[in-house]
Amino acid sequence: MAEGVPVLATRDLTIRFGGHVAVNAVTCAFAQGTLTAIVGPNGAGKTTYFNLISGQLRPSSGTVSLLGKDITRLGAAQRTRLGLGRGFQLTNLYPNLTVHENVRLAVQSVAGIRFDFLSIAGHDAKVAEEARRCLERVKLDAHAHLPAAALAHGDQRKLEVAILLALKPRVFMFDEPTAGMSIDEIPTILDLIEEIKAERNKTVLLVEHKMDVVKRLADRIIVLQDGTLIADGAPADVVASPAVQQAYLGLPPAAEPPREVSHG
């Protein structure tokens, strides 16, 4: 990748569903070592924008590039192999496999193990150990033997993050990673995201509704409204923007000063 080329970028990225423009010509670049929060009211196009970046949806127009390579026509699996890691708002697991097996499959995918995948990986000590380390980081190692379906919702979200870690992406995409978690569980995920950010060789994108989470983690905030990018900048500047307060925080627009009434 040439110096100065962003790790991830979208250019005029647009998708239409019939007459509805869900994402409208969004141009944005994301640099290595940064964490960008993507915020906006419900229906603003945040998750749709994520889906366009990660390959779940194909754009009507515009491009997506990763490490300087145009990936617009590539599917989600190809993008994952190139270093784009996506976590979902709803868990995306193999429910009948154990917690450890779910992560082990991701580890072996990175290692290029293809044939008779479960039995081969099961006898590969390095693969098993890497999976265990990922589970330790999300504090799920004690549940490694359980089927994924037996986990509480919050633990399933943690498992999804462990799978994401196992894929070793250059870009981490988290879609409301703390949704459905108890107050006690949330710090584990936030601390882990901060650890990833601190590595400085990763890029993190975060869709999140909780502004306290955004303020804690983000170097930068971009705001979508009706599919259009309406603000992009440092968290303090974006949160203070009247347009953002009106669109995202639900605050009314500033009142106009009263007009003088002429009595003459």
How would you describe this structure to a colleague?
The chain is of the alpha/beta class. It contains ten helices and ten strands. The chain has a six-stranded mixed sheet with strand order 6-7-8-3-9-10, sandwiched between helices. It has a four-stranded antiparallel sheet with strand order 2-1-4-5, with helices on one face. A hairpin with a 2-residue loop joins strand 1 and strand 2 (20-30). Helix 5 crosses helix 6. The protein is globular, with a radius of gyration of 21 Å. The mean pLDDT is 86.
**What count of helical segments does DSSP give?**
10
Extract low-pLDDT stretches: none
Mean pLDDT: 86
Spatial strand sequence of the major β-sheet = 6-7-8-3-9-10
The SSE string, one letter per element, is: EEEHEEHEHHHHEHEHEEHH
Structural class: alpha/beta
The count of β-strands is 10
Shape: globular
Q: State the end-to-end distance.
A: 72 Å
Q: Describe the largest sheet.
A: 6 strands, mixed
The helix fraction, in percent, is 25-40%
The percent range for strand residues is: 15-25%
Oligomer: single chain
Output the radius of gyration. 21 Å
